[in-house]
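Figure 2 data, in text form.
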Amino acid sequence: MKRYLVFIFLLLTGLKGFANGIYSHEPSKGDYNLVNYRVDSLKILLAPTLNNKDTPIDTLTINRINKLASEFIDINPDSALYYGKMAIDKSIAIKYNKGIADGMMQTGIVYTMKGDYDKAQKNLDGSKLLYIKIKDDKGLAQSYIALGRMYNRIANYNLASFYFSRALEINKRIKDEAGIAASYHNIGMVADNIGKSTSALDNYFKSLSINIKLHDNLSSANNYNNIGEVMKEMEIYPKSMEYYQKAIVIWQASKNIQGVSTAYENIGEVYLLEKKYDEAIPYFNKSMVLTKAQDDKDGISQLCNDLALCYANKKQFSVALDYMAQALKMATDYKLDFDKVVAYNGYATLYNLQKDYKNAYKYASLGKKLADKLGSLGIRSTAALQLSSALGGLNRFAEAFEMRKEYDDLKDSLKSDENVQKLTSFNLESKFDEKQRLLAEEHRHKDDQYQQKIQRQGLLSAIFFVIILGMIAILIVYYKSKRKQQKINVMLEERNNEVVLQKNNLDDQAGKLNDLNSLKDRLISVLAHDLRAPLSTLRGLFGLLEDDSITHEQFLSMIPQAVKKLEYTSDFLDTLLFWINSQMDNFNSSTKSFTIKEIAAFEVQNYQEQAAEKGIKLVDEVPDLLSVAADPNSIRIVIRNLITNAIKFSKQDDTINVSAHYQDDKYILLSVKDSGVGMSEKQLNKLFKSKVDSGTGTNNESGTGMGLLFCKDLIEKCNGKIWVESKAGSGTEFFFTLPVAGVAKEEEVAMAS
C-alpha cells in the first residue's frame, strides 16, 4: 500500500523549508513536537502583522506564511489550505511572483489530498508557469514532483513518469541531493504501479542511499515502506515485514500519524495475504481511524476494500458489501481509477464467493476493461481470474476457458518476471549493504584522519603550553612586584580616606551640635514666652481680684480664657517633654498594634468645641478596622498637632476632614485636610525644618513653630513618612504613613532573625 508516499514523502523532503525554496537536510527532524514548535514559532513571528491590518506586508512575511502552510500539510491540511490561499492573496497585492507560486504549490498539494483534481491541476500548473517565469529551478522541480504525484494518483502513469523524470534532471543539474532522492522515489513508485518491480526497487534503493547519507530518517522510512511493498508483491513476506518494521520504528518515534496509519495497513495486508483475517482486521481498523483523521480519500478507499475482502473470506457478506460500497463510492467520487479497478475486482471476488455469478460477471467485466486501460499486470490478472470464475459459474465455458487462458498468460508473464525480480531484489540489497559498508569505512577513515589531526594539534598545543608557562612565570614575578606597590598605594589611600572620613564626621557632629544649640535656644525662647504668658495672665488676674479692681462676676468671666491658655501651655509642655524623652538614647518606643480609629476619634471629639467656636466643621472619616503598629502616644501627639494647626488656619464655614485608608499592603495613609487659607510654596519649603516662624491664625492665634518638627521626628521613629500638600487660598492637607500591624510584626521578626 503506497498511498502514504503520494503526499508525505514530498512534504518531508521536497517541501521542508519550502518558504525559502530549499530542501531540508537536517538530521532526524521528524519529531512531531518539533513540528509543533516550528508552527508555534512561525505564528508568533506572524502575529503582529496578521493581527494588524494596517501593517504593510513584505516578502519575508509572505515567505513565513508559505512556510507555515507547508508545516501544516502534514498535521492539518485545512490550515495548510487557509495559509496557502492567504499567501497567494497577499503576494498578488504586492506582485510577488515567488510568493504566488509557493502558495499555489501548497494549495495544489492539499487539493490533491482531498481529491479535487481540477483545482489541484489549476494551482500546480500555475505554480509551474510562475517558477519558469522567475527562473526558479528548485521551485520548478518541486512543482514537477507535485504534478507527477497528482497524475500518479489518478493513474495517468505516462504523465506522472514524465514529470518525475523532469524533476530528476533539474535536481541533478542544481546538485540538490534531497530533491534527487525524492525524484528517484517517485519514479520507483510509478514503476511499481505498472508492475515493473525491478525498476521500482532500483529507484527505491537509490533514494534510500541518499536519504541515509543525509540523515533524513522520515524520508528513509518512506523508502523502507515502499521496498516492503515490492517484497510483499513478490510474496517474500518475512522480508516485507522486516522493511515495514524499519519504517514503523521511525514513524512511531516521530509520532507521524499518517506514517503509523500506513504501517498498520501494510501489516494488515500481509496478514490478509496469509489468510490470517482475524489478525488483519484490527490493524485495518486502527489504520482507518488515523486515515479518516487525515481525510486521505485514497487511503480510505483502499482500507474499505481490504476490510471487505477480510469479511468476505470470513463469510460475513453483508459487512463485506457495505465496505465494498464505500470503497467504490470513494474511488468514483474522487476519480481514483486504480482504486476503482481494485473495488470492481473486490466486488467480483465477493460475488463469486457467494456464487452470485451474474453480479460477479458485471463487476469483473468493469474491472477488466479499466485494468486493460491502465495497463497494470497485477490488477489485469486479478480481473481476468474473477471474470473467468464468473463466466464458468454462468456456464459460459468457452469464454471462461479463453479468459482463464488470458489469466494464465498474464500470470506466466508475472511469474517469469518474479524470478528476475527476486534475484534483482537480493542483488539490490547486496549492493545497498555494500554501499553502507563502504560508507561506514569512509566514516572510519575520516575518524582516523581526525584523530591524527588531533594528535598533531596536541603536540603543537604542548609546545605552546611550555611557551605560555614561561610567559606566565615572567608575568607572575611582574605581577607580585606590581601587587606589592598597589598594596602600599591602597594602604596610603585608606589612611587618607580615614582622615577625610574623620574630618567629615567631625563636620557632621559640629553641624549637629550647632543645630542642637539652635534648637536649645529656640526651646528656651519658646518656654520663656509660652510659660510666662499664661503665668503673667494668672498673676494679673489674681492681682486685680486682690485689689478689688474687678468684681467677682468679671473675674469669673475671665477664667475660661485663662484656662484655655493654661490648657494650651499644658499640651505644649506634654508634647515637648515627650519629644525630649524620645531624643534620649535610652528611650524605648512602646510600639504596639492598635486601631487608628480610637485615637483619631478621641482627638476629633476633644477639639469639636474649639472648632465650633470658629464656625468650623471637624469631621472624622477614619474607618473602624484599620490597625497600625506604632507608638500610640506619638501618634496621638501628631494627630493633635495637625488638628490644632488646621483649626488655627481655617475660618468660619471651613471643613476639616480626618481620614485614613490602605496605601498598599504594607502601609496605611492618614490625612488631615482643611479648606482654610493654605500656604504659599515658600512657606511649604520651610516646613519640617529646625527653624520655623509660626504665623498667626485666622483669629490671631499664636504658635511656637515647633509642632511640625516634633511630628516629623515622631512619625519617622514609627517607621513612617510625613508630607504636606497646599496651595494659597485652597486649603492644606497633611499626610503621614504608618506600618500595617501584621506587616510590621513580620518585618521585625525577619530583622531579628
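Caption note: The chain is about 75% helix and 5% strand.
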